[in-house]
Amino acid sequence: MLDQPAQSGADAPKADATGAETLLEVTNIEVIYNHVILVLKGVSLKVPKGGITALLGGNGAGKTTTLKAISNLLHSERGEVTKGTILYRGERIQDLTPSELVDRGVIQVMEGRHCFEHLTVEENLLTGAYTRRDGKAAIMADLEMVYDYFPRLKERRTSQAGYTSGGEQQMTAIGRALMSRPETILLDEPSMGLAPQLVEQIFSIVKRLNEEQGVTFLLAEQNTNVALRFAHYGYILESGRVVMDGPAADLRENPDVKEFYLGMSEEGRKSFRDVRSYRRRKRWLS
């Protein structure tokens, strides 16, 4: 199991309604870009330790902005959190740098993978251990652990990352994050641009990492169907607001979610045209 940061009594995370410890708590945050564009409008969520929490919604709903607010990557895009709080293990983290967050055990896997194209797959993975100070033996042991979960990467370890497939680059990005020994991974759109078979493979590995290594995941995903099959809890965003949340099993059976996001109703699967018409009629916030 990956080593987890020690916690003091004062910073021990609170428990949620199910008794699970709350690692990450976002309370009523607002995010503004360029001092004028309001993107998030009072988003609140909790991520329990050892769980997979899904952040769902269409393109432009605010999923990526929420992850970047947590990992403090907004400033490079002229964005800032103007209201609300973000706590990790009970401690405010809004003023920490991304590297300081990695030291706390929080790391983000960006949308679009963002591998170092000119480096080999193995060199990319080793960059994830750059800040570690526990010795080469421990790092190499974790490298073998990553290869156990992603055997395809072991086969391509000497290949230049820019010449690998989209699925292999996504595996490399997740593996690189694992090399930092994270407690929590913020995973942004892992299915983007991948064939359905690869999406299933990636999510199955995420589930194994969660169950076997105890890694906590907060994942942003447009593919509601696959995300709700693997997640434990979900939040649905629309226009920068959380409009619905609940256990993933309940969301899968919710009539509005089935019709609005899965294209299904009591009459069976709907066509894209029907779903698009339903989206125009639906008023989540009324």
Please describe the topology of this protein.
Blueprint lengths: L21 E12 L3 E12 L3 E5 L6 H9 L7 E10 L2 E2 L5 H7 L1 E4 L11 H7 L8 H14 L1 H5 L10 H13 L5 E5 L7 H18 L2 E6 L2 H7 L2 E6 L2 E7 H6 L1 H6 L3 E2 L2 E2 L2 H10 L5
Parallel strand pairs: 3-8, 3-9, 6-7, 7-8
Antiparallel strand pairs: 1-2, 1-4, 4-5, 9-10, 11-12
Helix pairs in contact: 3-6
Quickly describe the structure.
The protein is of the alpha/beta class and about 290 residues long. It is about 35% helix and about 25% strand.
What does this structure look like?
The structure is a single chain. By secondary structure, the protein is α/β, with parallel strands linked by helices. It folds into 3 domains: 18-105 and 182-247, P-loop containing nucleotide triphosphate hydrolases (Rossmann fold), CATH 3.40.50; 114-181, no CATH class; 254-286, no CATH class. It is built from 11 helices and 12 strands. The longest helix is centred in the C-terminal third of the chain and has 18 residues, at 196-213.
Instruction: List how many beta strands DSSP finds.
Output: 12
Structural class label: alpha/beta
Q: What CATH architecture label of the largest domain applies?
A: 3-Layer(aba) Sandwich
Report the C-alpha radius of gyration, rounded: 19 Å
Number of domains: 3
Q: What does the overall shape look like?
A: globular
Sheet with the most strands, sense and barrel status: 6 strands, mixed
Strand order in space, largest sheet: 6-7-8-3-9-10
The overall average pLDDT, rounded, is: 87
CATH H-level homologous superfamily name of the largest domain = P-loop containing nucleotide triphosphate hydrolases
Helical fraction = 25-40%
CATH class designation of the largest domain = Alpha Beta
Strand content range: 25-35%
Question: How far is the first residue's CA from the last residue's CA?
Answer: 46 Å
SSE order: EEEHEEHEHHHHEHEHEEHHEEH
Question: Residue ranges: pLDDT <50 for 5 or more in a row?
Answer: 6-10, 271-278
Any idea of the CATH topology of the largest domain?
Answer: Rossmann fold
Number of helices: 11
